[in-house]
Amino acid sequence: QELDYSLQLLALAEQDVLQCALLVARSIKDEGDRIMAITSIANMFAESGQDSEALKIADTIERDYFKATVIAEIAATYADSGRFAAALSLADSIPRSENRAQIFYEIAVRYAKSKLFDEALSTTEMIEDKTYRVLAFTEIADEMSEDNHDARATPLLFKSLQIALTITDREYKDIALSAIADKFINRGRYIEAVDIAQKMDNIKIGR
Fold first, then answer.
1. What is the pTM of this model?
2. Tens of pLDDT along 138-164?
3. 106: closest CA among 65, 58, 74, 141?
4. Going along 60-177, which residue ranges are E strands?
5. What is the dihedral of CA 131, 137, 141, 144, to 10 degrees?
């Protein structure tokens, strides 16, 4: 009983620290620094399981990108505990599709880690951002391989490659191609990996 009480006190102390940090963050005059600080603190609330508090803070963040980052963290927390419907509902609450990409990516990866591959694939198809879509597909392919579903994983990597080749931004295209090449290297398929690397502007593969 004393241990339980001590743990409760520690939890309250941690919450008070975060609340104090939030007050300090809101007093920062520079807008960019203020938003980044508040975003970091909201993420800490989400990571500690205080989802409602994190959502309240997210609502006060002025820039959509940073707000989406916080909500993505909360959605990932929901998905980690199997609350996929709640996670998807959070994604739908974000108005701009480019800001939903990270959230759908987090949910898709969690579906894949739970071996719910059809749900992971359908969630990935909701991602309009091609780079995030490719990254999600490559992670799903990894999980499929670990679950002895190579017959599904390999075609998925080639599908990812076709999407990656249509990305117009060179930097993001290289990010997508690098992720795919890494997965082929992990499978010992070096010919495909080298072929993909040759399509990159700046070759950077491997961990």
1. 0.74
2. 999 999 998 888 899 999 999 999 999
3. 74
4. none
5. 150
